[in-house]
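Hi U.,

Before I forget, here's the chain from the pilot set. I'm dumping it here mostly so it's searchable later in email.
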Amino acid sequence: MLEQGHADVPGLDETEDAMSQQLEDTWWYCMKHHQVERYGGCRAADRLGPYDTREEAAHALERVVERNEAWDEDPRWNDDEDDEDAKDR
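Structure:
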């Protein structure tokens, strides 16, 4: 019987190392502390990201506002007309 794990899977450790290195090179915006941090910071549920640069992460909330406004104006996401039709019935 094989033990649980991946020790016998060729190349998996190298893949995990590469993925770990990629994450360590990313930036995140912590919504709890309102600051930019590296990968090993706060828990994922409290952060936005990943971002490639510190500058991108620093502007994370601005980007959220821009995207929300765009979605609010997008007819594919705007169901206000449906709400009005339902009231008229």
